[in-house]
Amino acid sequence: MAKLLKARVVITSPNNPPLSGGAVLVEGERIEALGAFEELKQRFPEAEIVDFGESILFPGFVNLHTHASMTIFRGLADDLPLMTWLENYIFPVEQHLRREWVYWGAKLAIAEMLRSGITTFVDMYLFEPEVIRAVEETGVRAALGEGLFDFPSPGYGPLEKGLALTRELLESYATHPRLKIIVCPHATYTCSPETLKKAAALAEEFNTLLHIHLSETRDEVALIKARYGETPPFHLEKLGLLNERLLVAHAVQLTDEEIELFARRGVRVAHCPESNLKLGSGVAPVVALLEAGVLVGLGTDGPASNNDLDLFGEMRTAAFLQKGLSFDPTRLPAEKVFEMATTFGARALGFEELGFIAPGARADLAVVSLAAPHLTPFYDPFSLLVYSARGGDVTDVMVGGEFVLRGGKILTFDEEEARRQVIEIAREVRALTKKG
Amino acid sequence: MAKLLKARVVITSPNNPPLSGGAVLVEGERIEALGAFEELKQRFPEAEIVDFGESILFPGFVNLHTHASMTIFRGLADDLPLMTWLENYIFPVEQHLRREWVYWGAKLAIAEMLRSGITTFVDMYLFEPEVIRAVEETGVRAALGEGLFDFPSPGYGPLEKGLALTRELLESYATHPRLKIIVCPHATYTCSPETLKKAAALAEEFNTLLHIHLSETRDEVALIKARYGETPPFHLEKLGLLNERLLVAHAVQLTDEEIELFARRGVRVAHCPESNLKLGSGVAPVVALLEAGVLVGLGTDGPASNNDLDLFGEMRTAAFLQKGLSFDPTRLPAEKVFEMATTFGARALGFEELGFIAPGARADLAVVSLAAPHLTPFYDPFSLLVYSARGGDVTDVMVGGEFVLRGGKILTFDEEEARRQVIEIAREVRALTKKG
User: Fold this and answer.
1) Alpha helices of A140-255 — where are they, by DSSP H?
2) Of A112, A323, A430, Cβ closest to residue B379
3) Contact B279 A323 (CB under 8 A)
4) What residues of A are in contact with residue B111 (Cβ under 8 Å)?
5) Of B348, B371, B402, which closes a domain?
């Protein structure tokens, strides 16, 4: 049955004025109509009315880069140099990583993401078929792929098996309504030029995205320069990999020339400001990228280096950083970071029918209730969502026309079970790190 | 009746290991005992047991700098140059500021602060007697004073009346259990040397703090240099105002020499990282200040330039900034920013019995429930509170031995009424800015 969703204000896209007293008609997986509530009520008398009360209805967020299952490592070790963290904690435990850990970690992550208004996430990790299982069961939307690298993987073993797994997933899920398989070579320092080329060929064959960590730290840039005589972007350029198919995570350490190159080649960027700060990587030149015409969305990165999956916080940090470091409070205004978290993120994934509210678009929607002291008073919906709202303020989420969160309750799976399972997994993880 | 508070973990202070399965005995306004739950239960069989379940119990936060009532301007105008914001929005409306606006704005702010675990806040604004009324009614703790400046104030009229009001408040509330009156000259660019000296004399006479905005922006430093031939810190030094009585808000634009001077004179600093970013002021040299031995606490600044009153977020931003900008993830670890938000903040106010949990300390406590996806799993309580928790996660707050928030409900006042009143006030504020 068609649903007529009513809110105090509907944000349709950052480029249109918010609709006060607006409503959205959802039929099947799509938005059928948009307008004043009373008018739509007359046009669609049969529709079930869902009134969200004193609230803002907005397009669901796109988390453009994460490793969702790493919820199991959230807070395991912080405030450490990157290599100590990876080599003494993450890598030793990942050697013992189990399929079920990835599954339960992803489910817990999805609970957290839904509660922060994320309807689509991009995932790269190990045992991705387990993340796929979590996505299918929970009703969220995702673009994901198995992390590929030259050394043997706890997930698939030797690289050839990883490429075979990726091909198999690309074939199996070619027509899935909520899943897009992407090809995920981990980074230029973990993948040889041959590996990168094989991954790119696969992405081209299946007309999908190539997703890679790039230019995250100064050390990485120095290493790639020493190894290949070029910075990471120019290394990829030489390999013919810089194009509209490439989605780059981080892009912190970029020269002006590299920004221009990204713009010319149509490379897309997932900006992860909080992870970049927490790991001591630096601050990506977001405004320069946007001004050059590069499509930049927002990602949380994994919850072990953030330590949450909250795109409200990411919008806020992205905007605040650009203002504070440039001494210019007009930089990266609320509407622009909101656009990065919605429309830009969707477009970076090639999802042209996502990231805004309009007739014909897919019904991926989220609702923030304003009935809270920190969301009072109401002057401007973008300001409230970007500068005052936070994960957990979202009461309702719809993905492809189906409610997955309704009135603060997740409908599609048992969130408490996911919590209990991850608490058990954490006991084993802690035991492994103590041994190490 | 004595209360025995039980939590999964009790954080007593950042310098002691957290107490697993710990409990706190509260008698009157103080903590009487601390230890293992079973042991305290035997020692105090008469005490009422309050079990917070799967939770962290910790010392309440000290918000070391805010203008609480500015909740009424939250989101009114953002992403603007500071002077446009002040001159086109804040100042014109403040000309029409009414006593009740300050009262209701403060009450709404207190609701938000309690829900973010803040038990003490420092306030400087107009019509402070209204903030005092809100503090008395709501049961929170505060150090506050009327904002003083040379031009006529909408609050008190000419400066002499502001000084007289301050003296009157100092006399009236000298023995209040939860209120400390401080003297608040607004800034060096709004107060003449004579005004500053009068304010300082008053603070000395009543043995209280002098609180001032200082070295917030590069423009301010340039202006004071042009006007007095010295930077703001050296201007105050010349006036004899740099001492242990001085609590400085912001301290963003400091030279190494000024940091040393602050350390030598025992000046205290309220670090407000989010406001400093949002207004394009920059990033304060927090690590350098701490290393020099300066007492630095955390403040949210007013909710119109933040746009929230959440010290969890402030801890996180403070830590992330120092790591990201120094390329060093070990900087300002979770325990240290937690200390800034609790013990250091309390000590900066001269509250030696606050900011930690120990027998004899005042019972200002907060509880975060861990039963949420973003707070799962549990490896380290400091990491969870600093990097994953957020305002709104606090379920219970006690100030001076009395519950003010219990099981997610504010006990001492009608939070919804405060929201309704501020929504009405916002209508008038909006009308005033439209006229302007």
Assistant:
1) 159-172, 193-205, 218-228, 232-238
2) A430
3) yes
4) 373
5) B348
Beta strands B30-36 and B22-27: pairing type? antiparallel
A chain contacts of residue B307, beta-carbon cutoff 8 Å: 383, 387-388
CB contact (8 A) between residue A325 and residue B283: yes
- Asked if B280's CB is within 8 angstroms of A379's CB, the reply is no
Residue with tokens 């963003």: B252
Confidence of residue A436 (pLDDT cuts 50, 70, 90): very low
Alpha helices in A4-98 (DSSP H): 37-43, 82-84, 91-94
Tell me the chain B residues in contact with residue A388 when contact means C-beta distances shorter than 8 Å: 74-75, 307-308
> For residue range B193-231, what is the model confidence (pLDDT) as tens digits?
999 999 999 999 999 999 999 999 999 999 999 999 999
Question: Which residue of A lies nearest to B110 if distances are taken between CA atoms?
Answer: A373
- Within 8 A by CB and 6+ apart from A253, the residues are A215, A216, A217, A218, A220, A221, A281, A282
Q: How far apart are CA B367 and CA B56, in angstroms?
A: 6
- Residue A256 sits in the same domain as residue A227: yes
We report the CATH number of the domain holding residue A250 as 3.20.20.140
Is there a single domain that holds both residue B68 and residue B54? no
Q: Is residue A421 part of a domain?
A: no
Q: Is residue B264 part of a domain?
A: yes
The reported pLDDT for the residue numbered B436 is: 44
pLDDT digits (tens, 9 = 90+) for B293-337: 999 999 999 999 999 999 999 999 999 999 999 999 999 999 999
A388 with B76: Cβ contact below 8 A: no
Secondary structure E strands in B279-359: 295-298
B373/A115 CB distance under 8 A: yes
Same domain, A320 and A382: no
| Residues A148 and A289 occupy one common structural domain | yes
Cβ neighbours of B371 in A, within 8 Å:
419
Nearest to B374 among A77, A308, A426 (CB): A308
A163 and A295 in a common domain: yes
ipTM for the whole complex: 0.97
Q: What is the mean pLDDT of residues A17-45?
A: 97
Which residues, including other chains, have CB under 8 Å from residue B112's CB and lie 6 or more apart? A373, A374, B71, B303, B308, B309, B310, B391
User: Does B154 share its domain with B35?
Assistant: no
A393 and B392 in contact by Cβ < 8 A? yes
Nearest chain B residue to A423, by CA: B377
Q: What is the mean pLDDT of chain B?
A: 97
Residue A381, domain extent? 3-59+362-410
Q: Mutate which of B320, B327, B394, B414 to test chain A, going by most A C-beta atoms within 10 A?
A: B320
| Integer Cα distance of B71 and B307 in angstroms | 9
Which one of B296, B313, B348 terminates a domain? B348
Chain-chain contact of A75 with B320 (C-beta, under 8 angstroms): no
Interchain pair B278, A422: CB under 8 A: no
Please tell me whether residues B78 and B193 are part of one structural domain: yes
Distance from CA of A296 to the nearest CA of B (A): 20
- Is the CB of B280 less than 8 angstroms away from the CB of A328? yes
Residue B102 located in a structural domain: yes
pLDDT at A82: 79
Residue type, A220: E
Identify the band that residue A229 occupies on the pLDDT scale cut at 50, 70 and 90: very high
| Cβ atoms of residues B413 and B137 within 8 Å | yes
Q: How many domains in chain B?
A: 2
> Chain A contacts of B373, Cβ < 8 Å?
71, 108-109, 111-112, 115, 415, 418-419
Do B217 and B103 share a structural domain?
yes
Tens of pLDDT, residue by residue over A163-203, are 999 999 999 999 999 999 999 999 999 999 999 999 999 99
Q: Looking at the domain assignment, is residue A416 inside a domain?
A: no
Q: What is the CATH number of the domain that holds A402?
A: 2.30.40.10
Three-state SS string over A50-69 comes to: EECCCEEEEECEEEEEECHH
- For A266: left if phi > 0, alpha if psi spans -120 to 50, otherwise beta; the answer is left
